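[step 3/7] fold_predict: job queued, chain A
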Amino acid sequence: MKYFSILKIVALLAAILPVSICAQSGESVMVMEAYSGKVLIASNASVKRPIASLTKIATGAVAVDWATATGKDIGEVRLTVPQTITLVGGPNPMNLQPGDQLTLRDALYSALLGSDNLAALTIADHIGREIQNRRGGSGDPVGTFVGEMNRLAKAIGMTQTRFANPHGLEREGAQAYSTAADVARMSIYAMRRNAFNFTVRQPERQISVTGPTGKRSFHIKNTNELIGEPGILGVKTGTTNAAGPCVSVCMDRDPLVRQKPDGTKGATPRRLVVVVLNNPDRFNRARSLIRQGWAAYDPWLASGAPVQDRKREMIDVPNPQ
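[step 4/7] structure written:
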């Protein structure tokens, strides 16, 4: 994973350059087809703004990439809840306490389905510490992990994004932002990872935590109301006062089978990604955009997928190693 090194100069520039961030000033929307990169609908898609727990899409993607790169089984890796969870605040659905243990898989379920901020921090602490151990480094392991989130964002073309933590809560003096277009990029990238894809499509999950008194079990429900509807695969919800209600949704359709000029048949996979930022009716808005997106994509594909201005009409999401 080439992006697994922290670019301190990039991080410094991101911290000192002026940033215009929009908060609570209308919605931002991006709809695109993931395999072709075709932009279908965009409104305020490049406006920088807080994205709340959509941040955890990057957290999950980095965690899954780390497990793949190191040959780890997410069901076997055991995390220890750090002392720093006392600094995060917010809901604590599993009543996590410093020193508790859970698997990386269960932490991902809690962070990505239940939007658990403390689980996200625990993931970042463990993996950041592992990265430091491999490099012989030191310092804040969560900061190391967030550095990898920003490194990945840069590698896949998220030029309008800066992550400040692994959970998405706003913190004074730690300016974080992204755009609807960049969240769509990260969603496409993350959904290519089988472990991430499998996790976020679950409507609910039973997980466990081990503490001083033994094992505790918890039932986690997916906060994404669209899960369970035909074709919906995920990916994440988020809400804070600054960001407003947000959602990123991924939907697959059966591949389109067509006959080629040589008489053979070819299949075109179809996947829609819809990002809605700051809309109080985010789920119904996403449903409407899904319909509009397919209505725009199908005739475009049928007409031969013409492209006049590739920079404006298409988005490429690479797969950095």
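[step 5/7] annotate
Strands lie at 28-33, 39-43, 78-80, 101-103, 204-211, 214-221, 232-240, 244-259, 265-277.
The first helix runs from residue 8 to 16.
exit 0
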